[in-house]
Recover the amino acids of this structure.
């Protein structure tokens, strides 16, 4: 008889955003005329930058001509033209990453989940709470022990390492999803030092780095000395360049990252990851990689930054609303998310239901990201400007009643 992976039975029945979509669909069915505004899942709304579209079209045209047609890309790790562009981008803010250390993927979510394949199931995994649910779910699917580092109001939603607790794998996300908090260089250096003392590996999710405006804040863990011996970094073009529907990201596994196998031999993590990807992943399509490379050109950077500025202005509008109502919040600066305390001590799902029922605005209940999210709520700045303004008008009206 077939045996299932029973770890799946221990997960929440649905993934967070599927749960939310179900509630929203039920609301829509019951209120077909409601002017729904979505500020839940962090999905972008502005179209792709023209330079990206042109590069994708050119890539597609090349696929239709015998001389330039491309089948499998040899390594499956990404074309050199894109990996070199990403490596140069890292250099632009002082992180020394070489093209050989980069593997292109279909977005950070896949690699965040898939990376666990190369680590033993007996590792203890430390995840900051609240966190992007993929980290917890993908480790629980393999039955790993997951422990949490509390990110809360007291520590500014920036959990710090505690030497009395040992962890083998550590997930960090900065700028943070969902709280919008950003680790300073000094704070990240503390995590790197912890990882070295404990011989752990940090899995660093930098998906929101493009939203950092303060030059003193690190965009990559590889801006921290010694991180290349203890960290893997994942990044994505989803939020940076509107690729949620295109799918392209990258993972950096440094050459210097080595771990001892049980027989004492030194094993390269990059080699293991390459072996895993070689078997289970055939790479990203050529036209998409052409579009991704265009993001890193001078014109591409100019165009995507215009879109980012638009979302930053939305974030400002949301943050100003919270300020005017005297609601505690984090994020909104250096981050596309605003994380606020639910008014009147409400629970986060309770507040979700209230917002949906009373003002037809969808957000994300903090509890969906972990226990420290209860009583907190996340709104995304990735919406349309008029909708953002209208949602905040309704929000103020709701709370003034
Ligand atoms: C989020 O809303 O947390 C993210 O958009 C989800 C994702 O990127 O997968």
């Amino acid at each position: 008889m077939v045996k299932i992976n029973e770890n799946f039975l221990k997960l929440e029945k649905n993934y967070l955003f599927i749960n939310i979509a179900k509630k929203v669909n039920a609301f829509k069915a019951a209120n077909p005329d409601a002017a729904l505004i979505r500020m839940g899942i962090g999905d972008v709304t502005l179209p792709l930058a023209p330079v990206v579209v042109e590069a994708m079209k050119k890539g597609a045209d090349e696929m239709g001509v015998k001389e330039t047609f491309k089948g499998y890309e040899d390594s499956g790790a990404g074309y050199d033209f894109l990996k070199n562009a990403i490596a140069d981008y890292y250099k632009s803010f002082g992180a020394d990453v070489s093209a050989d250390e980069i593997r292109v993927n279909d977005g950070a979510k896949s690699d965040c989940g898939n990376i666990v394949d190369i680590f033993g199931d007996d590792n203890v995994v430390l995840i900051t709470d609240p966190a992007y649910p993929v980290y917890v779910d993908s480790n629980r699917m393999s039955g790993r022990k997951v422990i949490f580092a509390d990110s809360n109001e007291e520590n500014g939603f920036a959990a710090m390492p505690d030497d009395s607790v040992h962890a083998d794998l550590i997930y960090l996300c900065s700028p943070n999803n969902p709280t919008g908090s950003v680790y300073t260089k000094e704070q990240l250096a503390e995590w790197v030092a912890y990882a070295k003392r404990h011989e752990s590996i940090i899995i660093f999710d930098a998906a929101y780095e493009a939203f950092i405006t303060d030059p003193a804040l690190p965009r990559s863990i590889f801006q921290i000395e010694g991180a290349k011996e203890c960290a893997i970094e994942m990044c994505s073009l989803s939020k940076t360049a509107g690729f949620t529907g295109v799918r392209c990201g990258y993972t950096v596994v440094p050459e210097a990252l080595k771990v001892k196998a049980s027989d004492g031999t030194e094993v390269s993590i990059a080699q293991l990851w390459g072996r895993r990807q070689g078997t289970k992943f055939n790479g990203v399509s050529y036209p998409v990689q052409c579009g991704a490379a265009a993001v890193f050109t001078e014109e591409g950077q100019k165009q995507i930054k215009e879109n980012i500025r638009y979302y930053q202005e939305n974030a400002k509008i949301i943050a100003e609303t919270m300020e005017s109502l005297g609601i505690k919040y984090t994020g909104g600066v250096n981050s596309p998310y605003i994380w606020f305390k639910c008014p009147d001590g409400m629970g986060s799902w309770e507040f979700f239901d209230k917002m949906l029922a009373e003002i037809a605005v969808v957000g994300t209940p903090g509890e969906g990201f972990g226990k420290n999210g209860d009583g907190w709520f996340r709104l995304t700045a990735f919406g349309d400007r008029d909708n953002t303004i209208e949602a905040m008008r309704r929000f103020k009206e709701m709370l003034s009643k």
In short: Residues 184 and 216 are 8 Å apart (CA to CA). The first strand starts at residue 37 and ends at 38.
